[in-house]
Design goal:
By secondary structure, the protein is an all-alpha fold. The chain has one domain: ACP-like (Non-ribosomal Peptide Synthetase Peptidyl Carrier Protein, Chain A). It has four helices and no strands. α1 runs antiparallel to α2. The longest helix is centred in the middle third of the chain and has 15 residues. The radius of gyration is 11 Å and the shape is globular. It starts with a helix and ends with a helix.
Length: about 80
């Protein structure tokens, strides 16, 4: 979880990701942020996040992003 947290904090250092639970729903992350996060996660974890994975449920919190990464790593 710490590595995922560091990735999102590099992209949006102004956000308290430990407290946010509606990153997409509240508009905290925009499409450019999501693209950057996905690119970094794909590179760091050697996974392939696909278009059908781009749902608010997968990106609304760091915890949700971690779960997505874990699922993708299991698929690889």
């Amino acid at each position: 979880m710490e590595k995922v947290l560091s990735i999102v904090e590099l992209i949006r250092p102004d956000v308290d990701f430990a407290e946010e639970t509606a990153l997409i729903d509240d508009g905290v992350l925009d499409s450019f942020d999501i693209v950057s996060i996905i690119s970094d996660l794909n590179d760091e974890y050697e996974i392939n996040i696909r278009v059908h994975d781009l749902t608010p449920e997968n990106f609304n919190s760091v915890e949700a992003i971690v779960k997505l990464v874990e699922r993708k790593r299991e698929e690889a």
